[in-house]
Amino acid sequence: MKSPQLSSPLDKSLNINFTDRVNSLTNQLESLSKTNSSVQQIFHIVPIIHRFLQKSLQSHQKLSDEYHDLTNTIQQTISICTQYIHDRYDHENELLFLKNKISQIIGQIGYTQYCLEQYWTMIYSLEQEIERLQILLSNPQLLQINRHKFETLQETQKIKLDRFIKENENIKLLINKRKDSIQTTQNQIEIDIKELQKLKSILYNNEVEQKHVQNHWVQIEKQTSHLQTTAEKTKNMENEYQNRMKTTKMQYNQVGKQLSSLSETYDQTNKKLIAIQTNETNIKQEIDNVKKEITTEQTCILTYRDQIQNLRHHTHKLELEKRHTYQLIKFEEHTNSILERKQVLHKHNQLKLQDRVKNLLRQLTDINKRNQINQ
User: Fold this and answer.
1) Are residues 77 and 146 in the same domain?
2) Same domain, 156 and 284
3) Which of 210, 248, 268, 304 has the fewest other C-beta atoms within 10 Å?
4) How many structural domains is the chain composed of?
5) 168-221 per-position pLDDT tens digit
6) What is the SS3 assignment for 303?
7) Which value, to the nearest 10 degrees, does the dihedral of the CA atoms of residues 294, 299, 301, 306 take?
8) Tell me: the pLDDT tens digits for 44-94?
């Protein structure tokens, strides 16, 4: 049988001639009849498995480091998003673009989590294999019975190793793609920052215009108060006019009664009536002019009110967008904390597995010493 060389892109030194060693083990088990020799052969095989586990753990550690780098980049993107919120000048299309990018990154993180779970199942299967070897060490009579099972296990482990290598290559490609996507997002974020600075200048101009409108509104209120005073003055003038008309009518009646005897007084009263009529026309013209000014000022007030309502509506939209982005960032922080907890649990399980392998090695060394003493 030819021994396939297993190569991985994460660790080029992972090159174990596993099938030749297993074949040599089976031949020696068939030739040897004593239990001590079989135990010694198994003791030689266990360090190979231990080295294989160490190399797989090293590759897994590299994957966890790359995953940690991904979390750092995601935290950097989240910090940039928080900077956007403090600026309070986000745009709706830009926020939708960032939301899509964040959802893509979350999907990629879920895929890496799925790959890590598959690696954990592989490590668990290797742990079961170690337990089986321990049983074989305790009962050497079962070696011949379980030889066929061991061969089948070897084939399954070979298939799993090939899958593991392919998955590692795919994960490396995915990590490179993620780095490229993160670089594109950073470039897009820089472009968005420039556009946000432009929007900042536009909003500053809007605030200046709003202040100008408020000042103009104050002036309009002053003008309305002035118009109210002028309207009161016109009412007073109308009352005076009515009083004067009454007095003139009284005088006209008196003059009509005294017309036969007082022709000179009639001429004087006629002149007074002409002067009063001219005053009346002038007063009416002034009243019309004041009414026209009031109507024009009212139309201006209505236009300014509409402008103020539009500005308030725009500020309300900006506040709603701010709340929405703040909720998105809270959700991202929560997911990152969950992923960090899972990573800590994974490291803890790795430490447990290493301790267990060390205990097995100690047991094997003790058994070997006992066999040597017995010999």
Assistant:
1) yes
2) no
3) 268
4) 2
5) 777 778 777 777 777 777 777 777 777 777 777 776 776 777 677 677 667 767
6) helix
7) 170
8) 666 676 676 677 677 767 777 777 777 777 777 777 766 666 665 656 676
- Which tokens sit at 233? 């003055």
| Same domain? 107 vs 160 | yes
pTM of the model: 0.23
Does an H or E element contain 91, and which? none
The whole-angstrom separation of Cα 88 and Cα 47 is: 61
DSSP character at residue 278: H
Residues 225 and 291 grouped into a single domain: yes
**Rounded distance between C-alpha atoms, residue 78 and residue 98, angstroms:** 10
Q: Is residue 322 part of a domain?
A: no
- Pull the structure tokens for residue 358: 């060390």
Residue 9 pLDDT exceeds 50: no
The DSSP call for residue 10 is S
Are 72 and 179 members of one domain? yes
Domain that holds residue 217: 213-315
Do the beta carbons of residue 119 and residue 175 sit within 8 Å? Answer: no
Instruction: Give the integer Cα–Cα distance in Å for 51 and 35.
Output: 25
Cβ neighbour number for residue 346 with a 10 Å cutoff: 17
Q: What is the mean pLDDT of residues 101-110?
A: 74
